[in-house]
Amino acid sequence: MKSILNIIYNKIGPIATKIATQKHLLAIRDGLILLMPITIVASIFIIVGELPIQGYQSFMMNLFGEEAWGSFVWDVVYPATLGISAIIAVIGISYNFVVNEGIDGIPVTAISLASYFILLDGSEGFMNFCGAEGLFVAIITALIVSEIYIYFIKKDFVIHLPDSVPPTILRSFVALIPSVVTIFMFFFIRIGMTFTPYGTVHNMIQTILQQPLMNVSSTYLGTLLTSLANSILWTFGLHGDQIVGSVTAPIMTSNYLANVEAVKSGLLPQFINCDGFGAIFLNFGGTGSILGLILAMRFCCHSKTIKKISNIGLIPSLFNISEPIMFGLPIVLNPIMMIPFILTTFTVTSVAYGAFALNLVNKIIVSPPWTTPIFASGYLATGGDVRAIILQAVLLFTAFIIYLPFVKYVDKEYLAKENK
Predict the structure, then answer these.
(1) How confident is the chain (420 residues) per 10-residue block, as mean pLDDT?
(2) What is the DSSP-derived secondary structure letter of residue 177?
(3) How many whole angstroms separate alpha carbon 320 and alpha carbon 340?
(4) N or C of the chain: less Cβ packing under 10 Å?
(5) What is the DSSP letter of 364?
(6) How far apart are CA 261 and CA 46, in angstroms?
(7) What is the pTM of this model?
């Protein structure tokens, strides 16, 4: 065990830490968080507009008119929220990237936005690439523009004005040279792409990068690898959600937006593993389906220590916060509890993925906050599918059964210590 720990701390630990703190991934993660408020707002409207209750729908159509009720979600709210997710990503990522370097982030957001718009081809539908279709180009654009802007600022290749000039004017002139260089560069990139088989940057990125990554990530193997990596890192005290999420966040966001776009177009959602799938169906109660463990601790264990830990961890776990149990039982660096923790992740992921793959449950089209309690989260995420509640109950029972014999063993150890 000590040799394994040494390998983790000396080899894997530093690599995982570098990934979690890598400046480009950090900017992407923090930048995409800017999407959270509009995603939640859009989800609320989708739930209200698409609630699958015929009596409710008939009443609302009679109240507002069939045309008005049928169009307010997809023709009004969606274009103004998820429909501009790529634009918001450009702003959020470029701003966070530059601010993390200690530089004023406002000018670079304007330059990034202008550069992204230059790449858009109006003949293919200007708004078509402001949402999910343009997310990867938005990320790449924000990173490139930010790097150029930081280079010019740090090398002091800027226009200097007297200190008496107002700060707002000074800021504009500081950004002038980086703006000219960057926008001209993106203009020539757009012209150059017309001589390729792809025609536009968006078509190229969509063909060779975005769509393949989205497809691979939503396979059973891709889903299993990401969920297992998350849990394994947690068992050694490393924040798996941050480390794995910093890499997978743009892909999961793209998958979710593609599902919503499919519903908007009257098609069936395609992607199983998307934003919200892990938190709602794999990690209820926290990473490793901790809520199942807490129920086993609370109702099947007898030591005062286990009871007290379960009391402390229950309320946070209902909102998918698992740290009290991770470090209180503990699971971290506990060779006994590591086994069911990993086994539960494997089993729950397999069962959940299988249920979605067999179309026993509607795929995710709403992204409720990750702190939404179990059962409510499944019902909301699938657009009001009651079968999602049943699936979560099955997954919770599965986690409970797997954890039970192991936590009973730990309970006996605690009892023995208490009796002494």
Answers:
(1) 56 65 84 86 84 80 80 85 90 94 90 92 67 87 95 86 73 85 94 89 87 87 91 80 80 91 88 92 90 92 88 89 86 87 95 95 90 92 93 96 92 85
(2) H
(3) 18
(4) C
(5) P
(6) 12
(7) 0.82
